[in-house]
Amino acid sequence: MELLLKKSIENLGRIGDVVTVRPGYARNYLLPFGLAVPVTKANLAQIEKERARALAEEKARVETLKDYAQKLAQASVTVEGRANEEGHLFGSVTAAQIADALREKGFDVDAKAVRLDSPLKEIGVFDVAVHLHQDVDATIKVWVVQAKPQ
Predict the structure, then answer these.
(1) pLDDT at res. 150
(2) What contacts 114, CB < 8 A, 6 or more positions away?
(3) 114 closest CA partner among 104, 105, 127, 123
(4) Where in the chain is the domain with CATH 3.10.430.100?
(5) Which of 8, 54, 60, 64 is the least buried, fewest Cβ under 10 Å from its Cβ?
(6) Res 35: pLDDT
(7) The whole model's pTM is what?
(8) Could you read off the pLDDT of 71-119 as tens digits, one per residue?
C-alpha cells in the first residue's frame, strides 16, 4: 500500500516521502495516528509545504546538535566500580551508568543514545559513541576506575 508520510519515521522515511508498506501497518498504525495519508494531488501539495518547513527546522536542529556534539566530545566521565586485582569488574558499566555520569556533568543524554557494543567489564579508558541524531554522533572518553574501599 502506498502512503505519503506526514512525519518523519525512523527506518521508514522522511516527511513527504511516498512509501510502500503492508496494509496492516498502514491501517493499524500510520493512518490512525496521523503519520501518513493516501497519495493524492491535494495531499502532495499540502505535504510539500510542510516538508519545506520541516526541512528548515531539521537543518537548524542538526546544526544545534553538531555544536552540542563538539562540547560533548570534549567531555570525559569517570565511573567507579569494584574490581579484582587483575582489573576485571565484579559487575559491569552500562549505558545507563554512563548517561547518569554525563547528566551529572550537565549533559542531558538519554541512555538509549549511548552506544556500547557490550557492557564495559574492565578498568581502563574507553571511547564510547553517543548517537544524538542520524547525522550526528559524538565520541566521549569513559574512565572506569576502582571504587574506593569503604
Answers:
(1) 66
(2) 95, 96, 98, 99, 102, 128, 129, 130, 131
(3) 127
(4) 75-146
(5) 60
(6) 93
(7) 0.68
(8) 888 888 999 988 888 889 988 999 999 999 999 998 988 999 999 988 8
Amino acid at 124: G
The dihedral sign for the CA sequence 130, 132, 138, 143: negative
Distances (CA, A) of 96 to 5, 26, 58, 119: 33, 34, 27, 10
Q: Which fold has domain 2-64?
A: Ribosomal Protein L9; domain 1 (3.40.5)
Q: How many Å apart are CA 100 and CA 20, to the nearest integer?
A: 40
Which regions of the chain carry the CATH code 3.40.5.10? Answer: 2-64
Q: Rounded CA gap, 46 and 57, in Å?
A: 17
Give the C-alpha distances (Å, rounded to integers) separating 83 from 43, 118, 119.
60, 18, 15
Are the C-beta atoms of residues 102 and 110 closer than 8 Å to each other?
Answer: no
Residues paired with residue 74 on neighbouring β-strands, in sequence order: none
Assigned CATH class of 75-146: alpha beta
Instruction: Determine the Cα–Cα distance for residues 128 and 111; give it in Å rounded to an integer.
Output: 12
Q: Residues 45-62: pLDDT tens digits? A: 888 888 888 888 889 988
